[in-house]
Design goal:
7 helices, alpha/beta, four-stranded antiparallel β-sheet, Alpha-Beta Plaits, about 240 residues
């Protein structure tokens, strides 16, 4: 496994920039609602947006509504729920298709979590996630339950950092990147995706296929990214230095 270098500042010259949220722009927290948003984030996003001529999007596993509550700048594009939700900078968005049987699946996951201390349910418009960061010993049990439920109900399984999510078959963060890149405001630029989680690998691969690059945040691992930054603080420093 080759050691990845830090991305050069010039990587963002003329680029279209796509940023994950948790673990990239903000530190991971014990629960999704406990994240602390840096006071300088809004100013940084505004500067990036200006310098990139609007070619900036945040692509997250959070639902679009939850994501927008935490991001202190609204004049950019957003994707939520791992590519299932898309909103452009002008506020227009694609309609979300809710899978059949989701209500029953949610009831089963909520009941399962209630029986085990420390498990946290995160409801999303088209899926449901089960977090076990507060109960790591329950991880294997949670994984087995969610995997079996997905197979029974025809849902896709999305794994992340101490979380497992059931969602419809289909979109990924890579699909979100490709959708944004097909828009006139983004077309022709070099896509750069910055993210930390396994769910970002689809976007790293999509960026590379469009002659762009991925930037992994955190420890070295097998990845489709071409560069790496150590931490959320390193991401902020790199972006701020360029902006």
């Amino acid at each position: 496994m080759a050691e990845l270098d830090s991305p050069p500042p010039a990587l963002l010259d003329g680029a279209a920039l796509f940023l994950d949220f948790d673990g990239t722009l903000v530190e991971l927290a014990e629960t999704p609602g406990a994240v602390r948003v840096p006071s300088a984030l809004g100013r940084l996003l505004r500067r990036l947006c200006d310098r990139l001529d609007g070619r900036l999007a945040i692509v997250s596993g959070r639902s679009l509504g939850d994501l927008k509550r935490h991001v202190p700048f609204a004049g950019i594009a957003f994707s939520g729920s791992h590519g299932l939700e898309l909103q452009w900078a002008d506020g227009s968005h694609l309609p979300l298709s809710v899978p059949l049987g989701l209500d029953e699946v949610r009831e089963k996951v909520i009941a399962f979590a209630a029986a085990s201390r420390g498990l946290l349910v995160e409801e999303k418009p088209a899926g449901i996630a089960l977090h076990y960061r507060l109960a790591p010993d329950e991880g294997a049990h949670a994984e087995a339950f969610m995997t079996a439920l997905a197979k029974e109900r025809g849902f896709s399984v999305q794994r992340g950092a101490m979380v497992i999510e059931l969602r419809p078959e289909g979109a990924t963060k890579g699909d979100a990147l490709r959708a944004f890149m097909s828009e006139p405001d983004f077309a022709g630029a070099r896509p750069v995706f910055v993210g930390d989680d396994l769910t970002d690998e689809h976007a790293f691969a999509a960026a590379a296929a469009l002659d762009g690059a991925g930037v992994l945040v955190g420890p070295q691992r097998e990845t489709a990214a071409a560069y790496r930054l150590d931490s959320v603080a390193a991401v902020a420093g790199w972006l701020d230095g360029w902006a």
